[in-house]
């Protein structure tokens, strides 16, 4: 990886930096022991082809991407995208809200293609040479929150809270005699219910993935809710349990097959 780091700078980044800047960034007499220790510390993901390392990249706990290098003979072959997918998955699993990096002139187009934007241009002094790079940031996009139309608070609570077992996270009215807007959640599923005209129209449909549909269905049947006795349907992509709410919206609880 140390050799890859050195060669990438000398054979790829030389398109955008002069020989003095390149020599300062990756000198011929760089301390191999320090370089090895640095790579150990960042614990990078490594791309390998035919037994040869063709790229590596890391992401730290705060979302900082320290190293991101692809072999000069494997540029434009999807190595960078594969590495970035691994970083993205790591960020997602750790709940990291933002990814950021100090990006070279050469790497800027790639990072822009990955959804990063320039926060600021920087001048960095390395071994007496001034190099330009960019502080680039990519915000994590969270899952959307659907807004469903409702008309009756009592019916909404009876269906969503008492029957389906959603929890009320918060609720809002501009005054006591005005429409209700509230957030409901169950696990990672978040729904907004609104009595406000114009927020949504009846007839929406949501797909909600669960990991134990049969037991959930048994629990719902046991409640003997007067307006629904949901059944499970087998479909080509798995199992579905559609349930209509009192306002014409449809919630489809489902298990997606791995096949």
What does this structure look like?
The longest helix is centred in the middle third of the chain and has 16 residues, at 79-94. The chain has two domains: 2-139, Gcn5-related N-acetyltransferase (GNAT) (Aminopeptidase, 3-Layer(aba) Sandwich), CATH 3.40.630; 147-256, 2,3-Dihydroxybiphenyl 1,2-Dioxygenase, domain 1, CATH 3.10.180. Helix content is 28%, strand content 34%. It is elongated. It is of the alpha+beta class.
Q: Summed up, what is this model?
A:
28% of the residues lie in helices and 34% in strands.
List the SSEs and their pairings.
Elements (H helix, E strand, L loop, with lengths): L1 H10 L7 H7 L6 H11 L2 E5 L2 E6 L6 E2 L2 E3 L8 H16 L3 E7 L3 H6 L3 E10 L2 E11 L7 E3 L3 H11 L3 E6 L8 E6 L2 E6 L10 E5 L3 H11 L9 E3 L2 E7 L5 E7 L3
Parallel strand pairs: 3-5, 8-11, 12-15
Antiparallel strand pairs: 1-2, 2-4, 5-7, 6-7, 9-10, 10-11, 13-14, 14-15
Helix content: 25-40%
Instruction: Please state roughly what percent of the residues sit in beta strands, choosing from under 5%, 5-15%, 15-25%, 25-35%, 35-45% or over 45%.
Output: 25-35%
State the CATH topology of the largest domain. Answer: Aminopeptidase
Order of helices and strands: HHHEEEEHEHEEEHEEEEHEEE
Structure summary, number of beta strands:
15
The separation of the N and C termini measures 38 Å
- The CATH class assignment of the largest domain is Alpha Beta
CATH second-level architecture of the largest domain: 3-Layer(aba) Sandwich
Low-confidence parts lasting 5 or more residues at pLDDT below 50? none
With strands numbered from the N-terminus, the spatial order across the biggest sheet is 3-5-7-6
């Amino acid at each position: 990886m140390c050799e890859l780091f050195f060669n990438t700078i000398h054979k790829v980044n030389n398109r955008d930096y002069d020989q003095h800047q390149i020599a300062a960034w990756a000198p011929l007499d760089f301390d191999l022991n320090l370089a090895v220790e640095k790579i150990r510390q960042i614990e990078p993901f490594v791309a390998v082809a035919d037994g040869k390392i063709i790229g590596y990249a890391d992401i730290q706990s705060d979302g900082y991407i320290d190293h991101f290098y692809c072999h000069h003979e494997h540029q434009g072959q999807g190595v960078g995208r594969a590495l970035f997918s691994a970083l993205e998955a790591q960020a997602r699993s750790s709940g990291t809200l933002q990814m950021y990096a100090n990006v070279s002139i050469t790497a800027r187009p790639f990072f822009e293609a990955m959804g990063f934007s320039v926060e600021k241009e920087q001048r960095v002094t390395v071994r007496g040479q001034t190099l330009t790079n960019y502080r680039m940031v990519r915000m994590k996009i969270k899952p959307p929150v659907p807004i469903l139309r409702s008309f009756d608070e009592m019916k909404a609570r009876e269906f969503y809270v008492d029957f389906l077992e959603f929890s009320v996270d918060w609720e809002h009215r501009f005054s006591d005699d005005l429409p209700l807007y509230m957030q409901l959640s169950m696990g990672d599923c978040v729904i907004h219910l609104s009595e406000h005209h114009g927020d949504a129209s009846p007839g929406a449909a949501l797909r909600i993935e669960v990991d134990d549909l049969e037991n959930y269905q048994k629990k719902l049947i046991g409640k003997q809710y007067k307006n629904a006795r949901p059944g499970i349907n087998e479909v080509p992509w798995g199992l579905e349990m559609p349930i209509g709410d009192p306002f014409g919206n449809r919630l489809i609880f489902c298990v997606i097959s791995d096949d």
